[in-house]
Amino acid sequence: MPSIQLSNDLNMHYEIDNFTDPWKEAQTILMLHGNCESGASWFGWVPHLARDYRIVRPDMRGYGQSTPVARDFPWTIDVVIDDFIKLMDALGIKRFHLVGAKIAGFIARRFAARFPDRVITLTVIGTPPPVYDVAARVESLTAEIERDGIEGWARRSMAGRLGGGFPAVGVEWWIKHMSKTPVSSQICFVRNIPKADITADLPKIMCPTLVITTQGSALGSVEVTRKWQETIPDSRLLVLPGDSYHVAASNSDECAKATREFIRDAAAH
Question: Please, what are the domains in the chain?
């Protein structure tokens, strides 16, 4: 279980999955998990990708086995991105494909715009629109988490994430997975990270980009998603059936296979 001290206040846990031929130089995919999750969230994707690519799955600051975050930590989207850049620098990986789910897809879009020399392709799955300030709900969300804990909040809100067709036993797994998050990390995250407006970043994304959503995503209609997707110069939109917005989990096989083919296609052009 590798971890690395990236700064005085961050010990970052990460996993590397690499089943490529040892005599070949494999490209890397950096996979960024969503809110209240960890790198373990990508279990359904790894079998589809790790035969052809080196996979790096970090736990974001505050989550999983990485250092928790205090409630008053000055957290921003750029702090998150800088953490991941430090990780890739420490691992000696200059260029990589970037994949992000849910709010990590929001972060990944700014990431790709800030570091066009590092990101080869970008895939974002079930991700919010460029303006996603939850300010109106911050106090109620904070109060709910303080009162019911992460598990209570996750249980109440899980149906919208995974959609109506997800098996009950799977829903319970995701609730328990999210419940491992420290309350302080989640409260700090909710108060700070979604405040960013990444609208101006989208036209600056120079790498091929794949956006995946569902027909009934609660994060935005297909029309709303297509509107911001089309502001990314070299991008395409894949719409899957269903009403999940955590489509990276509810449709992991489909999403992983589509991402693999997208990366291969981008390399061929």
Answer: 3-268 (3.40.50.1820)
